[in-house]
Design a protein that fits this description.
The protein is of the alpha/beta class and 251 residues long. It contains eight helices and seven strands. The protein has helices spanning 18-29, 44-49, 64-77, 101-129, 150-170, 188-195, 200-210, 219-230; strands at residues 9-13, 33-38, 54-58, 83-86, 132-139, 175-182, 241-244. The structure holds nicotinamide-adenine-dinucleotide. This is Oxidoreductase.
Length: 251
């Protein structure tokens, strides 16, 4: 592992979850200091494990006041934020006719509004310094319609369009904006999804066979894609969705 994020300050949301934890660990190995944030109080474990390098903030990224607290804490304790990884998200698996207004709002807010709020708070400092990188965790659901994922596909599609739009607005200011298009990942998110199915074993087999690579991803494989997009090796990449999906969207 190269120390390509030496001296950098990173904010990672969804940091108590599978992908978020893996990304935080890789950023730390790469020399960064990380503000790890999640709605789950379990995020505090990360700071206990690496005091000084990790600052944990329990916060709801769908609320502007909480987002303000995340960045104020990061700036005060770690310095100006160089990289934002907007990774928090969750799914409710339903078709349009079964989705309540509240379910629609919760999924849109967690996956799309959160990205807007986090970016809006990160950008002024990045603009002032003429440098920054933003990565959002998207999905196969950002680019295709999947069964019974009405609100989630809409939210992850909106996220991708905001990635493209911000890439255009901010490229000339030295700020890159990209997304990872994740396939299925071995995290609590996937476990909960499978448990909600009538036949979890059949669901697992179907998911694995949907990925030409024949399996789902481990969180580290998605974190690797996040770090690539966030870092100097992707210096000419912006407005892009990197499909880390085992070939799923290539069919
Ligand atoms: N696991 C998969 O199969 C899969 C596939 C494609 C994309 N994704 C995306 O990957 C990202 C990471 O998910 P994961 O697989 O690590 O799942 P996860 O459930 O392990 O982690 C997601 C984290 O986001 C947090 N979160 C949710 N809503 C929040 C809010 N309002 N404020 C703050 N934190 C909040 C949760 O508490 C959780 O810790 C998500 O955006 C998800 O949509 C996951």
């Amino acid at each position: 592992m190269t120390r390509s994020f030496e001296g950098k300050t990173i904010v990672v949301s969804g940091a108590a979850g599978g992908v978020g934890r893996a990304a935080v660990a890789l950023f730390i190995e790469s020399g960064a200091r990380v503000c790890a944030t999640d709605i789950s109080p379990a995020v505090a474990d990360l700071e206990r494990d690496a005091p000084g390098d990790i600052v944990a903030v329990a916060a709801d990224v769908t609320k502007a006041a909480d987002v303000e607290n995340i960045f104020a804490t990061a700036e005060q304790r770690l310095g100006p934020v160089d990289v934002l990884v907007s990774n928090a998200g969750f799914i409710i698996s339903k078709s349009v006719h079964d989705t309540s207004e509240d379910e629609w709002d919760r999924v849109m807010n967690a996956n799309a509004k959160s990205f807007f709020l986090m970016s809006r708070r990160a950008l002024p400092s990045m603009l002032a310094r003429g440098n920054g990188s933003i990565v959002a965790t998207g999905s196969i659901s950002s680019v295709v319609g999947l069964p019974e994922q009405a609100a989630y596909c809409a939210a992850k599609g909106a996220l991708l369009q905001l990635v493209r739009q911000m890439a255009v607005d901010y490229a000339s200011h030295g700020i890159r904006v990209n997304a990872v298009g994740a396939g299925s990942i071995n995290t609590p998110f996937l476990t909960r999804y499978l448990e909600g199915l009538d036949d979890p074993a059949a669901g697992e087999a179907a998911i694995k066979s949907a990925h030409p690579i024949g399996r789902w991803a481990e969180p580290r494989e998605i974190a690797d894609a996040i770090l690539y997009l966030a870092g100097p090796n992707a210096s000419f990449v912006t407005g892009h969705i990197l499909m880390a999906d085992g070939g799923c969207s290539a069919r």
